[in-house]
Amino acid sequence: MSLRLGDDAPNFKAQTSQGEIDFYEYLGDSWGVLFSHPADYTPVCTTELGKTASLKDEFEKRNVKVIALSTDSAESHKGWINDINETQNVEVTFPIIGDEDRKISEAYDMIHPNASLVATVRSLFIIGPDKKIKLIISYPASTGRNFQEILRVIDSLQLTAYHSVATPADWKDGEDVVVLPSIKTEDIPAKFPKGFTEVKPYLRTTPQPNK
């Protein structure tokens, strides 16, 4: 069965480039990004893992732990990491899961038979500290991920998890947000003291509350 937003992220034990892990223990109280790759030594994935490594500080300041997956072996990953470090001028410090039996890929519905019977699509899951799936994005093998978008949605997910707001189209951290419809207009000043703008009765904006 496919996973949906709000579902519990399946826990698993796995061999990785950094030894055996228990996924839930690895995440601890952090947010998590789990993302898959069709195979080791593939060009687009090499650039993606390099970009992820270069954004280490950005993920850390958001309390996000990153973990990648490929259906090749954990031992194979080690040689590939050397190539990533060399070609992308980075140091990969996060683990890459070896999923040779594809059990994790199947649990997370990462194999789409109409795309490939054996290789994972580029699935990405953002998982909250409550171990529930907050976001799913799947890319075809030929299209690399946009990591600025991944950081943007993490900012949105974290903001909206703790404040009664939503983020509008193309929102970036620091911009105005939308007050949830469940909040009455007369109650907005007490909850959002920075003020608000009523564009329509159902569309009220306010400065980002945690800035």
Automatic annotation (TrEMBL):
Q: What is its EC number?
A: 1.11.1.24
Fetch the Pfam families from UniProt: 1-cysPrx_C, AhpC-TSA
Q: What class of enzyme is it?
A: oxidoreductase
Q: Which UniProt keywords apply?
A: Antioxidant, Oxidoreductase, Peroxidase, Redox-active center
Which CDD domains does UniProt cross-reference here?
PRX_1cys
A GO MF label? thioredoxin-dependent peroxiredoxin activity
User: What InterPro entries does the entry give?
Assistant: AhpC/TSA (IPR000866), Peroxiredoxin_AhpC-typ (IPR024706), Peroxiredoxin_C (IPR019479), PRX_1cys (IPR045020), Thioredoxin-like_sf (IPR036249), Thioredoxin_domain (IPR013766)
Query: Which domain of life does the protein's organism represent?
Result: Bacteria
Domain Thioredoxin: start-end pairs? 3-159
Q: Which family does it belong to?
A: Belongs to the peroxiredoxin family. Prx6 subfamily.
PANTHER family given in the database record:
MCG48959-RELATED, PEROXIREDOXIN-6
Q: What is this protein called?
A: Peroxiredoxin
> What lineage is this protein's organism placed in?
Bacteria, Pseudomonadati, Bacteroidota, Sphingobacteriia, Sphingobacteriales
